[in-house]
Design a protein that fits this description.
single chain; 533 residues; alpha+beta; Alpha-Beta Plaits; 2 domains; nine-stranded mixed sheet; 13 helices; 9 strands; 62% helix; rod-shaped
Length: 533
């Protein structure tokens, strides 16, 4: 019998890791977004602050220097936030470094926050510079403009970095789908919180810019005496603000919907053959936790299927189904069953001249052939007793007595055919062929779980079992390979092709028993049960 291997490593789509330089390209993209946001802030300042003649170039030069210093600080921050991740990407293995995984998950939030804080510091320096050039009464405008730039910078850098890091995170999750997406050291921001931050942040920026432009436009219109273009300018700024806000929300929503679409596609065709699939969590929000939950569910299903398959190697699929469905109570019930007993004649003497390894190998080949023949006809392999096999028909799945008897007879005939094929192989290998005896009897027996709560065995016990064993022993005395009792013959009806009956005195029985050699089955005649149905 073949031993069952442990569950295989879960099969997931192998996602190639990006090159280490992709982290730098992500960083540079975020810096480019920051530069754009800084330009927006500078533009706002020029709208609200009137600089003395000749001082504006000086202001921009110093502001540019401050931005350059902040970029340098961001380079150092990027290195600190990704040093574990970069090292792992350069030399990845089948296992994922947890520190690298945490850095990959946290990088969007930490890097975008750092960029926003750096922009605010530049804003403070710009405010101080403005105070020195034009006086402190205009510092508030500079602070507002710088804050707007910092907010836009952080928001869109966050969305951009999060989008870019999904590829890295998916590649890491493909190597270990059970990586944590929450807990100590992991920043988790929910989808609702993300959308609220984006909507509020962008809306506030748009409202402030639109209000400022409206005020400056109205002021200029009053001074110049013309209001023709003011309404159009306010409308254009409002529309642009709404589009920017909408684009940010769509980015957040798209990341969630992509995950849900992936899960829906994976689970729509879920079957035992696909339990080894795994989702690839790549975020610390609800979608990441959902993917982790799905992976844990698939782990449980795969383990349950493995246990079920392993059980079937030891107790047959029927019993494993009963056990896995919670049928573990002690006790039993009276059933009408058909018992098939078989063993190898003279095997003890034969095995004396064989090595233990050869004996086991031969038995496994024999058992494999016999078990397959029985299971094809719904037989329960109750137990192996040395070289003997006890097979039950009619339990645990309840069947009509005539059906159980017919299945047992078909299984016995299939066993004789498979034995002939096995013997041809043994003879070709220079080994001694095997000779077996089979005894079949039908009757009442108690079927159920026997043992203790710590160790159970599903079996049948009763006089019917003893009679089947004695009939198998009698088959040797009568020089017949396959004997059935009169009770089984009556259940088979005219379908059974039998030889001359013999009356034998079975060991331990006070009354003689009539047995028949089973020669075959007539498929053109239905049993009484089949005809009635």
């Amino acid at each position: 019998m073949q031993l069952l291997a442990s569950p295989q490593v879960s099969r997931v789509t192998r996602v190639p890791l990006p090159l280490p330089k992709s982290l730098w390209s992500t960083f540079l993209g975020a810096i480019a977004i920051g530069s754009t946001a800084a330009a927006v802030g500078a533009y706002y300042i020029t709208l609200t602050v009137v600089f003395p003649e000749g001082s504006l170039p000086t202001f921009f030069a110093i502001l540019g220097g401050c931005v350059a210093l902040s970029v340098g600080a961001m380079v150092a921050t990027h290195h600190r936030l990704t040093h574990h991740l970069t090292a792992w990407i350069k030399q990845p293995g089948d296992s994922v470094d947890l520190d690298a995984w945490r850095q990959a998950l946290n990088y969007p939030e930490l890097m975008s926050t750092s960029i926003g804080v750096a922009a605010l510091l530049v804003c403070v320096l710009a405010a101080g510079l403005t105070s020195a050039l034009v006086g402190g009464h205009l510092v508030l405008h500079v602070i507002v403009g710088g804050t707007l730039a910092a907010v836009l910078d952080a928001l869109f850098a966050w969305m951009f970095i999060e989008h870019r890091m999904r590829r890295v995170l998916r590649a890491m999750a493909a190597r270990d789908p059970m990586l944590p997406v929450g807990g100590s050291g992991i920043i988790g921001i929910g989808i609702g919180t993300k959308m609220a931050i984006v909507i509020v942040g962008v809306s506030v920026v748009g409202a402030v810019v639109a209000g400022t432009l409206a005020y400056r436009g109205a002021e200029a219109a009053v001074a110049g005496g013309g209001l023709e273009g003011l309404a159009l300018r306010i409308f254009a700024v409002t529309v642009i603000g709404l589009l920017v806000s909408l684009s940010g929300c769509l980015l957040v929503a798209r990341q969630a919907t992509v995950t849900l679409e992936e899960l829906t596609e994976m689970l729509s065709d879920l079957s035992p053959e696909s339990y080894s699939q795994r989702a690839l969590p790549c975020d610390g929000d609800e979608t990441g936790h959902l993917m982790s939950a799905v992976n844990r569910m698939l782990d449980g299903l795969e383990e349950r299927e493995f246990i079920k398959d392993a059980f079937s190697r030891y107790v047959t699929r029927q019993v494993s189904d009963v056990v896995l469905q919670g049928g573990l109570d002690l006790g039993g019930e009276m059933r009408h069953v058909t018992i098939l007993m078989t063993d190898i004649r003279g095997f003890t003497t034969m095995s004396e001249n064989m090595s233990p390894r050869t004996v086991v190998k031969l038995l496994n080949r024999y058992f494999t052939a016999m078990v397959e023949a029985c299971m094809e006809h719904d037989g329960l392999i109750d137990k192996f007793i040395g070289d003997a096999i006890m097979v039950v028909f009619g339990a645990p799945a309840r069947t009509e007595p005539a059906v159980s008897a017919l299945k047992a007879a078909r299984a016995a005939l299939a066993m004789t055919e498979r034995l002939e094929g096995l013997n041809r192989e043994l003879i070709s290998e220079g080994l001694t062929p095997l000779k077996t005896g089979i005894g079949i009897h039908s009757g009442e027996a108690i079927a159920g779980n026997i043992g203790s709560p710590q160790r159970l065995n599903y079996t049948v016990i009763g006089d019917a079992v003893n009679i089947a064993a004695r009939i198998e022993t009698a088959s040797k005395e009568l020089a017949c390979d396959l004997l059935i009792s009169e009770a089984t013959r009556e259940l088979l009806g005219p379908r059974a092709v039998v030889g001359t009956g013999e009356v034998v005195q079975l060991k331990g029985k006070s009354m003689p028993t009539r047995v028949f050699p089973l020669l075959g089955l007539r498929d053109d005649i239905a049993s009484g049960h089949e005809a009635a149905s």
